[in-house]
Specification:
The protein has about 325 residues and is mainly beta. Helix content is about 10%, strand content about 40%. It folds into two domains: about 160 residues, Cathepsin D, subunit A, domain 1; about 140 residues, Beta Barrel (Cathepsin D, subunit A, domain 1), CATH 2.40.70. The longest helix has 8 residues.
């Protein structure tokens, strides 16, 4: 494979090739921690793993001039990798919950799922050490802001609608059949109708949430916005909301004033989230972490507020639904 010249070996669970057109498999790291796709960059179509991130507006990859620890462990992209590499001279920097990157903006082609566009994107000269932990070499920003990869694909009229459908696989289920399909949802990936909720927040994939439940019991979480974020592993909410949820979990207790909660390892009830009158369940195996070295299990919903008064629903939830992100109609669907 073109992806084998890294200095160290990350565990990558590759997805099966999708049958749908304009679709690409979503690989993962074997722990359900990060979900990424294989993109081809530049004239030589260099393969790079890019995190699928609906919470990010910036697209970037690690640059060949980067000497940060994370870059030395990954494939990088630079002027020697492409005849069409064009450095714009502009700088960029971006901060994430898991670290910071900075570098400069170049223009070149990015091909994903057979869709090729030339666009400006970041090439990192500096990355924080957190990125050493993950297999991916960059981030594909799929927020609703202008100038994402999807914007360029739509403007080139390569797809009919500015829509993408996401299926994330749970590693313990066996075969990785995760995928992202551009232009239309892949109807083979879900049963029944798609239930849509209109987004409420400008350029973010954020929708009003009706409630959070545990084992069918309401935690009384009302009038909250939920950001739907494929680039986040777990679920995060305002500490008071999260405390109300764990009050419903027998034997749970917080270890640090309401950010993190331990739960009995044999907790087998599920947590659920309601939107537009429909309730979507996240499996108990996604809500309860496996035991750590002390035999302690944690709940994968954390009392942390990244956006004031809002929840952040990541892969812990998204593994349980087929999600449709519709830029044209400004809505998110689930099935």
């Amino acid at each position: 494979s073109a992806l084998t010249n890294r200095d160290n070996n990350y565990n990558v669970v590759s997805a099966v090739n999708p049958s749908a057109s304009n679709a690409v498999g979503i690989d993962q790291d074997g722990t359900d921690y990060s979900y990424f796709l294989e993109a081809s960059l530049g004239s030589e179509k260099k393969s790079m793993y890019m995190l699928v991130d609906t919470g990010a507006s910036t697209t970037w990859v690690m640059g060949s001039g980067c000497t940060s620890d994370a870059c030395t462990k990954h494939n990088t992209f630079g002027p020697n990798d492409s005849k069409t590499y064009n450095d714009t001279g502009d700088n960029y920097s971006v901060e994430y919950g898991s670290g910071e990157v900075s570098g400069h903006v170049i223009s070149d082609s990015i091909t994903i799922g057979g869709l090729e566009v030339t666009m400006p994107f970041g090439v990192a000269n500096v990355t924080s050490d957190q990125f050493s932990q993950f297999p991916f070499e960059g981030i594909l920003g799929l927020s609703m802001t202008p100038n994402t990869w999807l914007t360029y694909v739509r403007d080139a009229k390569l797809i009919q609608s500015n829509v993408f459908g996401v299926a994330l696989a749970r590693n313990s289920d066996g075969t990785n059949d995760g995928e992202i399909a551009f232009g239309a949802p892949n109807k083979a990936k879900y049963k029944g109708d798609v239930s849509y909720t209109t987004i409420q927040s400008g350029n973010s994939w954020a929708i009003p949430m009706d409630d959070v439940l545990y084992d069918g019991h309401s935690a009384g979480v009302k009038n909250r916005l939920a950001y739907i974020d494929t680039g986040t592993t777990f679920v995060f909410g305002p500490p008071d909301d999260v405390a109300a949820l764990y009050k419903l979990v027998p034997g749970s207790k917080s270890t640090d004033n309401g950010q993190t909660y331990t739960v009995p390892c044999n907790s087998n009830a599920s947590v659920a989230f309601s939107f537009s009158g429909q309730t979507w369940t996240a499996s108990a195996k996604d809500f309860t972490s496996g035991p750590n070295s002390d035999g302690t299990c944690f709940g994968n919903v954390y009392g942390m507020e990244f956006v004031s008064g809002a929840w952040l629903l990541g892969d812990m939830f998204l593994k349980n639904v087929y999600s449709v992100f519709d830029v044209d109609q400004k809505r998110i669907g689930k099935s």
